[in-house]
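cron nightly-structures :: item 1 of 1
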Amino acid sequence: MNKNKEFDEARLLTGQRLKTLRLRAKLSQANLAKIMGVCVHTIIGWEKGRGYIYGRHLRKFHKLYGVTIDYILGLSDNENQFWIDTSDQH
């Protein structure tokens, strides 16, 4: 698979998960923007798979929603389980 396509798909999945988590928490985009310390356009962009999410924001999402960063980034489908890459181990 094309690396750019994989990256785009991962960003879209991250955006979908962020939106789902926000809605589950019954937060508006404006309320979440205040909590995260960003403008509402940033939240909209993240939910659409655009823009870059800094580590400090990922940590805030982790604390706010109680899910792992791996889940947010699409590395795990389990909200509370970390992804371990064993592909490089011999």
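cron nightly-structures :: done
Residues 3-24 form the longest helix (22 residues).
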